[in-house]
């Protein structure tokens, strides 16, 4: 009967191989991620802003196996774009088009996060209104969770914009990883929508609605003013010629006597 002995080095190699296989099997299946886009079970999750990176996406979107989006963030306002919900009818929760999702964020901002805001938008930069169909499973009631590993409370507003703002609890320190869990449904599915995230952002519980810019009001044209009547220039009356003043009688008498004397002298010399 032959006895086989195992070299210590062989035991070490075998142990390493076994450990490697176990580690490989324990790693969740990674999505196909290229240039900031990760495809997972028919949906595409992509980076729609700067200052963060999606590192992996797993899951299938069901309540028991939600999509899990892993990301590193170093900015305070980021957006994840979600595409192809209209082409994947298998994704449905509560008899609505949608899915369960968890966001796992590693805080590389260097700041402590007391709050964490999640908002749904159909158009990047514009609030999602009440009647667009997109929501955090609005109307389902207590069956829908929105929970977090580091926050104990959350505020939700659905009329002016769709957001969940997490607060209280331990908060998120620099370098820590936090997880958020919720549902997203879209009863009027769009090809793309956005999950906007703002770490350490505390919103008002009654946010001000977005006001669409109004065209400038045109001022009324000025009323025409009546021209002032031209002054009437009446012709000046012709000046009367000066009237010679009458010669006084004393002067007339003197002149008459002088004429007589002159006439007498002339007669004498004749």
Describe it.
The chain has 270 residues and is an alpha+beta fold. It has a domain at 29-199. It is built from two helices and 15 strands. The strands form two sheets. It has an eight-stranded antiparallel beta sheet with strand order 1-2-3-6-15-9-13-12, with no helix packed on it. Strands 4, 5, 7, 8, 10, 11 and 14 form a seven-stranded mixed beta sheet that branches. A hairpin with a 2-residue loop joins strand 7 (92-93) and strand 8.
Runs in which pLDDT lies below 50 for 5 or more consecutive residues are 1-28, 205-213
Shape: elongated
Topology pattern, helix = H, strand = E:
HEEEEEEEEEEEEEEEH
Mean pLDDT: 77
Distance between the termini: 213 Å
Structural class: alpha+beta
